[in-house]
Design a protein that fits this description.
Number of strands: 6
Largest sheet: 6 strands, mixed
Oligomer: single chain
Shape: globular
Distance between the termini: 43 Å
Number of helices: 3
Number of domains: 1
Structural class: alpha+beta
CATH topology: Nuclear Transport Factor 2, Chain: A
Length: about 140
C-alpha cells in the first residue's frame, strides 16, 4: 500500500483555517514550535512567539471584539513556502458595539511543512507586498 503524499502549503493553511473556524483553537499540530505572529493591525503589538505568544495574540484580539468571524475567500500560493489567505472579517467592537466588515489578508510562511510565521494585515496590497507580489 502506497503512503499518502505530504500536504502542500496551501492545503496546510486551508486545514489550519478550517480547524480554527470549527474549534476556535489554532491547529497546533500544523504550527511550528517557534511560530511567530506579527499583527500589523495592532499598534504596539509587541512580539508573539511560540504557543504562549499565539495564545496572547488571540487574547489581545478577543479583548477588542465581542464577537468576530473570519471566512477565507481565496488562498494564493506565493511560492517558496509562502501562502496568502484573503479573508472576510466581520466583528463587533467590545466597548463600542460598532460592527466592522473588512477584507483582511494573512501571509503564512511555512518551514518543515508547518506554519512558522503569520503576518496579519488589514488590507490586500500590504499583504501582497510582504509576500513579494506587489502590484498583483
Amino acid at each position: 500500500m502506497a503512503g499518502s503524499e505530504p500536504k502542500g502549503e496551501v492545503e496546510i493553511v486551508r486545514d489550519s483555517l478550517r480547524i480554527w473556524r470549527e474549534s476556535g483553537e489554532p491547529a497546533w499540530e500544523l504550527c511550528h514550535p517557534d511560530i511567530e505572529v506579527r499583527d500589523h493591525d495592532i499598534l504596539d503589538a509587541g512580539e508573539y512567539r511560540g504557543r504562549p505568544g499565539v495564545e496572547r495574540w488571540l487574547s489581545d484580539w478577543e479583548s477588542a471584539w465581542s464577537d468576530f468571524t473570519m471566512d477565507a475567500e481565496e488562498l494564493v500560493d506565493a511560492g517558496e513556502g509562502v501562502v496568502i489567505a484573503f479573508v472576510k472579517m466581520r466583528a463587533t467592537g467590545r466597548g463600542s458595539a460598532v460592527s466592522v466588515e473588512r477584507d483582511d489578508a494573512i501571509v503564512y510562511r511555512l518551514r518543515d511543512g508547518l506554519i512558522a510565521e503569520v503576518d496579519y494585515f488589514n488590507n490586500r496590497p500590504e499583504a501582497l507586498a510582504a509576500a513579494g507580489l506587489a502590484g498583483r
